[in-house]
Amino acid sequence: QLLAGQKKSAPFWTFEYYQTFFDVDTYQVLDRIKGSVFPVPGKNFVRLYIRSNPDLYGPFWICATLVFTIAVSGNLSNFFIHLGKPTYHYVPEFRKVSIAATTIYAYAWLVPLALWSFLMWRNTKVMNIVSYSFLEIVCVYGYSLFIYIPTAV
Question: What's this protein's family per the entry (predicted)?
Fold first, then answer.
C-alpha cells in the first residue's frame, strides 16, 4: 500500500481522466459566471474562483450556448429582413451553426493557448514568477465569453 491516501490518476484515454475537468456544481458555475461579468476590484479572479478547481464544464456550455445563440439570431435576422416579400421562402441555414461552432471553439482554445505559450516563454526569459496553468487560462477565458451571449441576441 505505497499509495495509501493518494489519488490514483486515470489514463488519459479513459472517461475517468476527463471527468475531473467537469466536476463542478451549479453554484460554482454561477459564481464564476458572476465573477467574470462583475469583477471585484482588488481580487484575483483565478485565485478567488478558479485555482482550487479549474473546470471545462462552464466554458464548454458557455461556448455551446453562444454557438446556438449566434445561429438562432442569424436565422431570425435573415427571416426578419425578408419578411413581407412575397417571393421569399424561409430556409434555415444550418451551415451557420457549423461555422459558429468552429469559430467559437477554435477561438476558445487557440487564444488561451497563445496566451499560455507567451506566458511560458516570458516566464523562462525574464524571471521565474508564479504563472497560470493552461487549464486555468482556458477556464477563465471560457467563462469570460459569457458576456457575448446576451450581446449576440
Answer: Belongs to the YIP1 family.
